[in-house]
TrEMBL record:
Lineage: Eukaryota, Metazoa, Chordata, Craniata, Vertebrata
GOLD domain span: 35-186
Subcellular location(s) of the protein: Endoplasmic reticulum membrane; Membrane
Entry superkingdom: Eukaryota
InterPro entries: Emp24-like, GOLD_dom
Origin species: Erpetoichthys calabaricus (Rope fish)
Keyword tRNA processing among UniProt keywords: no
Name recorded for this polypeptide: Transmembrane p24 trafficking protein 10
Family statement: Belongs to the EMP24/GP25L family.
Membrane topology field: Single-pass type I membrane protein
Keywords, comma-separated and alphabetical: Endoplasmic reticulum, Membrane, Signal, Transmembrane, Transmembrane helix
Annotated signal sequence range: 1-25
Amino acid sequence: YKCSSAMSRLSVLLLGPFLIGSALSISFNLPVNSRKCLREEIHKDVLVTGEYEITEQPNTKTNLKITDSSGHILYTRDDASKGKFAFTTEDYDMFEVCFESKLPMGTGRVNDQLVILDMKHGVEAKNYEEIAKVEKLKPLEVELRRLEDLSESIVNDFAYMKKREEEMRDTNESTNTRVLYFSIFSMCCLIGLATWQVFYLRRFFKAKKLIE
């Protein structure tokens, strides 16, 4: 039993990085005078780092801009070719990384640019080698620190999922209550309309002396 329990803990630690999915590495072609954007949802108070490289083309200017859903600029670079960026999120939000290629009119044909983007956040974004140097940590202590941060990230993810589940449940309950009240209101309206029609037709037929 103890062996099985230990294996289960080890499996969780090994699978943790794959479950979190905190790294994004991608490459794509960017045509001239075009704009391509990548979007990703990131939790609150999370460190985000990235490294990009863009192949240069004659007379071509490529701009890089990172914004949140409110349009706030987190990082911008004009005439970007190669570099790094880093920022910490202030709230859970959808972030957009945009590359825009510009070529002056009248310039000859230019090939597409190759964009390579390597973006990390959370545990993957932290430089544990630098932390070890600053805090003078041993290799085992560094690994324990990384596992501690990983565990905290997993706990935060589960807490966020629980919160979203509670919000969805509250929304469903509120919707069900509103539907019930609307159904009762609709039924009362139908009953009132049917009653009014009966009395109206009765008065009409009496006025025409079709009934007594």
